[in-house]
Amino acid sequence: MATVAARSPAPAGGPRRGGRRTRGRTRSTALDRLVFGVVRAAMGTLAALPLAVALRVAAGVALMVYACAPGLRRVGLTNLAIAFPDRPPAERRRILRTSMANLGRMGAELAHLPRLSDGDLRRLVVFEDEAWWAENVGAPRETGGLILSGHFGNWELLVFAHGMRGFPVSMVHRAIANPLVDRWLNTLRARAGTRLVRKRHAAGGVLKALHDHELLVLPFDQNSTRGLGVFVDFFGKPASTNSGIARLALRSGAPIVPVFIVREGRSARHRVHVLPIMYVQRTGDLESDVVRITQELSDLFEGMVRRYPEQWLWVHKRWKTRPLGEPKLY
Question: Mean pLDDT across the stretch 141-167?
């Protein structure tokens, strides 16, 4: 027979501490709702505008944020000094401003996604060789595929357009701090059939996705905390990098497919670059193989950033985790 534990007497001052925690949760929930309301209002406003106008408005807002956020500018310019030490400061500032404007345009495109038809998406997002891509994506294989990409161009549009073409992906997802914004974005992703693998359940979820012959997108281009990543060179400086793609490829034999979406100028048109498919080679030394493959992927990603620097997210602290003994960069 089930029993209910008796409630212990509350210690002196207990209710007061609990009250503070309750008030803290209430304030947090209220702030989440306020932020979500602002986001939804902004998206609704952008969605009501013609797409070309929305792009200009959103880019302007993003540049205002750039002007008013010295912390973001400092991080971005620090990263650009690491990546392009030989370029003049004015050129690095131009790249950062253009990158921020791209983020704004990305927001405008997200606002319009629910209204875009299949024809609109095919007109706005063009694969360099779509017939080859569709043939290789749909070809029978023993396992799924690993998509190498990152916070480059309009990465959300890349996943959405791919899914709407009949090839939805699974994506390892770290929840946004605001649960209301997180739920709204995930609902939008689900329209294209995107399946999310929560980061805390990633180990089993990614293996199941590959076993089920799915295309899997893992984050690659952001800083990894110590113990979760491996140090490889990125623009000539050691960067703690997610080794998950290398480990999964070695374990499963899944091919790695580098895919990048590049905006054409200031427009809503994008071109998807699919680089040669990679198959990993095993030497018998697992950890050495992981570092070697992760370095190869980092070199490939760096090459795309060098070609299209305005497309990457420079305001992330990419070199935050340092090898032991090295000073902080931010």
Answer: 93
